[in-house]
């Protein structure tokens, strides 16, 4: 089962962007993430729509943080990416009239809902500047972002 890594990837990108003196192009971000620039633009557009980043087209353009990391939470980014479920566990739907399957699905579903609520509440308490604390000694032109 494929996992959705957009949250961790965008947190990674945003913390790098905070260290830069200039905007980061979609090409540079895509190179760092080993993906396509179109994927970067589509994903970053959700963050731009929520006001966390800005973009400038043309020479010298790219993506920049609009607000400080201290004002952005894990929940904010999770929400901006489309508010997908944080868990990928699926429920069985092969025997929908079976009382055992119904009971099992209800128990799993209830536990997932409760766990997700706790996790998302925790996401609201963690700001991106806290994640970046251990990385403040890195130079602003880190190789991963400079394309070297």
From TrEMBL:
GO MF terms listed in the record are: DNA-binding transcription factor activity
The record, for Pfam families, names:
Rrf2 (PF02082)
What is one GO cellular-component annotation here?
A: cytosol
The family database entries (InterPro entries) matched by this protein are listed as: Tscrpt_reg_Rrf2, WH-like_DNA-bd_sf, WH_DNA-bd_sf
Say which domain of life the source belongs to.
Answer: Bacteria
Protein name, entry field: Rrf2 family transcriptional regulator
Question: What is the source species?
Answer: Marinomonas primoryensis
Q: What is the lineage of its organism?
A: Bacteria, Pseudomonadati, Pseudomonadota, Gammaproteobacteria, Oceanospirillales
């Amino acid at each position: 089962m494929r996992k959705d890594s957009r949250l961790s990837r965008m947190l990674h990108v945003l913390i790098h962007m905070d260290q830069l003196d200039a905007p980061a192009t979609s090409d540079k971000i895509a190179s760092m993430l080993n993906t396509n620039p179109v994927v970067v633009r589509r994903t970053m557009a959700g963050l731009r729509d929520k006001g966390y980043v800005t973009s400038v087209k043309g020479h010298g353009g790219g993506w920049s943080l609009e607000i400080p990391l201290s004002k952005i939470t894990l929940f904010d980014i999770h929400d901006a990416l489309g508010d997908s479920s944080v868990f990928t566990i699926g429920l069985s739907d092969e025997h929908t009239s079976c009382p055992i399957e119904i009971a099992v699905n209800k128990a799993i579903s209830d536990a997932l809902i409760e766990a997700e609520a706790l996790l998302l509440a925790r996401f609201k308490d963690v700001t991106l500047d806290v994640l970046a604390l251990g990385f403040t000694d890195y130079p602003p032109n880190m190789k991963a972002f400079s394309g070297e």
